[in-house]
Amino acid sequence: MPDSPHIMIVEAPYYAHIAEELVRGTIQALDAAGASYERFTVPGAFEIPAAIRIAIEARGQDVRRRFDGYIALGCVIRGETTHYDYVCAESARGLQQLGVDAVIAEFVKHRLGQEIEGENYGEADRTLFADIVRGASARQGELDGMISAALNEEWPLHRLETILRAILRAGAYELLGRSDVPPRVVISEYLDVAHAFFAGKEPGMVNGVLDRLARVLRPADFDHDPGPDGGGRLPPR
Length: 237
Prior knowledge:
Layout: E1 6-11, H1 16-33, E2 36-41, H2 48-59, E3 69-73, H3 83-110, E4 115-116, E5 119-120, H4 126-138, H5 140-150, H6 162-177, H7 183-197, H8 202-217
Parallel strand pairs: 1-2, 1-3
Antiparallel strand pairs: 4-5
Helix pairs in contact: 2-3, 3-4, 4-6, 5-6, 6-7, 6-8, 7-8
């Protein structure tokens, strides 16, 4: 990103008195940071993700319209109908998907198979990588419930480091949604990932949680394997 980033502001001025304050605060922050910006308006919050996606897709066709970042400004007020829930859910889902797609594009184009600051990012199955990122994001609530049930009560999911949560979610998604990948392969690979980030007890936690999940989600793969403690379950941590 250049020293002076160029930002796209997408405004949904349906509630003008609120939108004006959101824009005022945003512009003050951007001016203080020395950023340039362009402002675009859409009818409502529902249209914000679509506007940003159009800008992202057009970026590759016209470098003059390139933005280094995107700011979404909108407001939805709860009323007596389900309109609020629908608009909020779809707007949030659309923005989340944009973030997921951006992460995938960044790694596929600029990281996988590259050497960055002396570190070699090995090649990967890019289709599988994209599926894991999208799947773990889309099913995060479901995955978090399963992971929480497999964790020690003294270490609830929300207390774990962000990277550790991401490792567990990705591994849990593969166990749940990728039956083509053997569970022992999933556990082994995410144990390696955990070792790359942590030198303490965290890799053991990853191994234990994914093993528990694998025995619930893929029981047929463990019919003749009683488990690390000989009884089908891991010993307490």
